[in-house]
TrEMBL record, chain A:
<dbReference type="InterPro" id="IPR001017">
    <property type="entry name" value="DH_E1"/>
</dbReference>
<dbReference type="InterPro" id="IPR029061">
    <property type="entry name" value="THDP-binding"/>
</dbReference>
<keyword id="KW-0560">Oxidoreductase</keyword>
<dbReference type="Pfam" id="PF00676">
    <property type="entry name" value="E1_dh"/>
</dbReference>
<protein>
    <submittedName>
        <fullName>Pyruvate dehydrogenase E1 component subunit alpha</fullName>
    </submittedName>
</protein>
<dbReference type="GO" id="GO:0000287">
    <property type="term" value="F:magnesium ion binding"/>
</dbReference>
<keyword id="KW-0670">Pyruvate</keyword>
<dbReference type="InterPro" id="IPR050642">
    <property type="entry name" value="PDH_E1_Alpha_Subunit"/>
</dbReference>
<dbReference type="GO" id="GO:0004739">
    <property type="term" value="F:pyruvate dehydrogenase (acetyl-transferring) activity"/>
</dbReference>
Automatic annotation (TrEMBL), chain B:
<keyword id="KW-0786">Thiamine pyrophosphate</keyword>
<dbReference type="InterPro" id="IPR033248">
    <property type="entry name" value="Transketolase_C"/>
</dbReference>
<protein>
    <submittedName>
        <fullName>Pyruvate dehydrogenase subunit beta</fullName>
    </submittedName>
</protein>
<dbReference type="Pfam" id="PF02780">
    <property type="entry name" value="Transketolase_C"/>
</dbReference>
<keyword id="KW-0670">Pyruvate</keyword>
<dbReference type="InterPro" id="IPR029061">
    <property type="entry name" value="THDP-binding"/>
</dbReference>
<keyword id="KW-0560">Oxidoreductase</keyword>
<feature type="domain" description="Transketolase-like pyrimidine-binding">
    <location>
        <begin position="5"/>
        <end position="181"/>
    </location>
</feature>
<dbReference type="GO" id="GO:0000287">
    <property type="term" value="F:magnesium ion binding"/>
</dbReference>
Length: 331, 330
């Protein structure tokens, strides 16, 4: 862990709170799926909460974020109401997208969450466009785009980072390198040791950090955000972490060696960060327990509300294909 | 010889035979090699049997997957590229449409690109708009391509082998919801179903349901329900969309004089429009009623249970048939 003295106890607590809510939300959904309480699919980010904590502290409310199908933690980080996340996951009308988008496609522009994509790599070019718009609109807001290690093998990644670097756009590219792309270990699909090395080729800084440590991840992302806001262009931050629940909920993870998983769990950010926090002179066990209890309660309420809400009705399902409904018969 | 097998096993068996009998064949795609062997376990055992140098795991790079297949095919190889979920095919579209499909023509036959692209339709998973589409209509519009979409284990095996060894590029579609479907599957090497041949899956005198892929099963289910009401539907499974087996379709409709076209692709501008138009042009005077199309509603596919509100169901086919043939028995 890096030096927590660089942050105030309230900054540290707020990161921990985001992490707790993210963990509690996923565990609650997984529990519901496993017990048959409801059916859905999620791509869990359990294990990657430190990145969400860091993003939540590094971004301003008006800064933008784009994430992926593995994005529930990022949605929490950007302040999307828990009931909107849970509703979308369950496909009910209180969801951020009225239940029509689903887990993979959550958007909440009021909180600056402009898109979540189910297409690997596709968030990066869109993030470049968000940043371009900020420049046109003379806003100093910054865009963060987050994605996995596997996404850095797509053409979209390479085209987007080059464009952002060439145009010196205010973007921060945050790679959550969890060492696997579905079932494929990262080293099988790239010939360089670090994703961050890819930055050199387009002329922008690339930093690799311990993505299980919210403090060093925050410091790296914050530095990149400050650079972007100052007009100095994009940065690629690679946060090295791990996912504990498989690619999708229910994935048996046969392709992950048991020793690797066991070792990774020793660096579970929820455990290690908690221990670190307790070493802070102003942070007590009671304080952390209160944060955890609050997170659990808010998550429970959100999931109950999401469950109680109806599915989108027929009129809702027909809405939003276009701004105005096309005349029946013409389609 | 024949045995009961699932479509998953049939596709695996076809890939196995192709790899075993031709040194030109190789597979490439995301996560398809053992031990992972893909999200759908379709390629299980093939890398162990034939080597990881012939069953290649790729990075998430669809343009490069299909582009590399095109390149290798120019050198005489017979690559089978996998697009894990069809919705991702847009990224490889340039390679398929502007290269694989046109190289033979544009080089006046001096180069050819006999690739096979396997693309999986995930409708039924509730995953939402970017993981559920049936996009065959896009490819039917491209001269130079062939498009195949089987519904049974035997058809899947025979058509996949025909696709791999076909001299032209073939888009081979698979519905993940049909992977577990069981049926007889010939086991001997050399079994083939020709590309461009439809199959009458059910005989009937009153109306023809022209369909393909997973909709074949809904059409058969609809036909049973209609039979109880005295309407006997003939079900023609196209199996290949490009080239279309018009002969079989027209022979059936000439007999029944009524037709419904059913598919999971969006109805508007979809494959059914082409089929309906061809039937109408050829049999205008024979038809008792206009040909009716049923497919997905004109909407992105919503997530979770709402999916069913937009996608094709057996009830849609029954309703369409009743619209066209409702007066048959009176
Ligand atoms: C263009 C595209 N190709 C393939 C897929 C299927 N797919 C979904 S997630 C995934 C792995 C992505 O790995 P990574 O970028 O490391 O993100 P992670 O899931 O590990 O967070 C793949 C191949 C997809 N969604 N989009
Ligand atoms: Mg990954």
């Amino acid at each position: 862990m890096s030096d927590i003295a660089q942050l105030t106890s309230s900054q540290l607590s707020s990161m921990y709170e985001v992490m707790c809510k993210s963990q509690a939300l996923e565990l609650r959904i997984l529990k519901g799926m496993r017990s048959g309480e409801f059916a859905t699919i999620i791509w869990p980010a359990r294990g990657q909460e430190a990145v969400a904590g860091a993003l939540s502290l590094a971004l301003r409310p008006d800064d933008r974020l784009i994430t992926t199908y593995r994005g529930l933690h990022d949605h929490v980080a950007k302040g999307v109401p828990l009931v909107e996340i849970a509703g979308e996951v369950l496909g009910t009308s209180v969801g951020a997208c009225k239940g029509k988008g689903g887990t993979m496609h959550i958007a909440a522009p009021e909180q600056g969450l402009m898109m979540s994509t189910g297409i690997v790599g596709s968030g990066l070019p869109v993030g470049v466009g968000l940043a371009l718009a900020a420049r046109f609109q003379k806003s100093d807001r910054v865009t963060a785009v987050t994605f996995g290690d596997g996404a850095t093998n797509t053409g979209s990644f390479h085209e987007a980072v080059n464009l952002a670097a060439t145009w010196k756009l205010p973007v921060v590219f945050v790679c959550q390198n969890n060492l696997y792309a579905e079932m494929t270990p990262v080293e099988e699909t790239m010939a360089i040791p670090h994703v961050a090395d890819r930055a050199k080729g387009v002329g922008m800084p690339g930093i690799t950090v311990d993505g299980n440590d919210p403090v060093s991840t925050y410091l790296a992302i914050r530095g990149a955000v400050d650079r972007a806001r100052a007009g100095e262009g994009p940065t690629l931050v690679e946060a090295v972490t791990f996912r504990f629940e498989g690619h999708y909920a229910g994935d048996q993870m046969k392709y992950i060696p048991a020793e690797q998983l066991e070792e990774a769990k020793k660096h579970d950010p929820m455990i290690t960060f908690r221990e670190t926090l307790l070493s802070h002179p102003e942070i007590t066990e009671e304080h952390l327990a209160a944060i955890e209890a609050r997170a659990a309660q808010e998550v429970d309420e959100a999931v109950e509300a999401a469950k109680a809400a109806p599915q989108p009705d027929a009129a809702e399902i027909e809405r939003d294909v276009y701004a105005e409904r096309l005349v029946a018969g013409n389609v | 010889m024949s045995k009961k097998a699932t479509i998953r096993e049939a596709i695996n068996s076809a890939l196995d035979e192709a790899l075993r009998t031709s040194a030109q064949v190789f597979l490439l795609g995301e996560d398809l090699a053992d031990p992972a062997a893909g999200v759908n376990a379709v390629t299980r055992g093939l890398a162990l049997e034939h080597g990881h140098d012939r069953v290649l795991n790729t990075p998430i790079s669809e343009a490069a997957i299909v582009g590399a297949a095109v390149g290798a095919s120019l050198e005489g190889m017979l690559p089978v590229a996998e697009i894990m979920i069809m919705d991702f095919i847009g990224i490889a579209m340039d390679q398929i449409v502007n290269h694989a499909a046109k190289l033979r023509y544009m080089s006046a036959g001096r180069t050819t690109s006999p690739i096979t692209v396997r693309a999986v339709v995930l409708e039924g998973s509730g995953a939402g708009g970017t993981h559920s589409q049936s996009l065959e209509g896009w490819f039917m519009h491209i001269p130079g391509l062939k498009v195949v979409y089987p519904s049974t284990p035997a058809d899947a095996k025979g058509l996949l082998l025909s696709s791999i060894f076909d001299p032209d590029p073939v888009l081979f579609m698979e519905a993940s919801r049909l992977y577990g479907k069981r049926g007889p599957m010939p086991t001997e090497d050399g079994f083939r179903i020709p590309i461009g041949k439809a199959d009458v899956k059910r005989q009937g005198r009153d109306i023809t349901i022209v369909t393909y892929g997973p909709a074949t099963w809904e059409a058969l289910e609809a036909a049973e329900a209609l039979s109880a009401e005295g309407i006997e539907a003939e079900v023609v499974d196209l199996r290949t969309l490009l080239p279309l087996d018009l002969e079989t379709v027209l022979a059936s409709v000439a007999k029944t004089r009524r037709a419904v076209v059913a598919h999971h692709a969006v109805t508007f501008g979809g494959p059914g429009a082409e089929v309906a138009s061809q039937i109408t042009e050829a049999l205008f005077n024979e038809l008792v009623e206009p040909v009716v199309r049923v497919g997905a509603k004109f909407s992105p596919i919503p997530a979770r249970a709402s999916e069913a509100a937009v996608t094709l169901g057996t009830g849609d086919i029954v309703a369409a048939v009743k619209k066209v043939a409702g007066a048959v028995r009176v």
